[in-house]
Design brief:
4 helices, Rossmann fold, 30% strand, seven-stranded mixed beta sheet, globular, alpha/beta, 7 strands, UCP004962, DUF2124 domain-containing protein
Amino acid sequence: MLRPFKAYLREAGLSAGDQVVYYGCPGTCTPFIELLGFAVRDLPVEQVYVPYADEAAAKVIRPVGGVGMQVSGDAARVDPKVVVLMGGLAMPGVPVTKEAVQAAVGAHAGAKVVGVCFMQMFEKAGWLDAFAFDLVIDAALDPVRIWG
């Protein structure tokens, strides 16, 4: 999922300082957001994390030496050129509605919309028709095997 994401951003015509803003669930989506951010760390973009669709709580994603990319405590303004919606937002029981996410995305007319999910979550939740995705990365997980 990292290579197609990075290739897409490279070809998106982004300029230095343009924002890639990730919307996702605290805790469960955050590690994947930091992984995606690490994959594109060499691009001259600003990366921002928005928990759920609460842009007032937006935080800058920064490199941390010897660790990788991490969500910081620094507040961020939100002005995306690329919106990244994480599939966790579409899962049942998440305290955000599809309509709230649509309103957040709709407030940024002209931004490209990327979806990153696992196991057809956007399809299962009916989000493929609800958003004008420019790219969807839908990763599949092999069955989990446990020893011991």
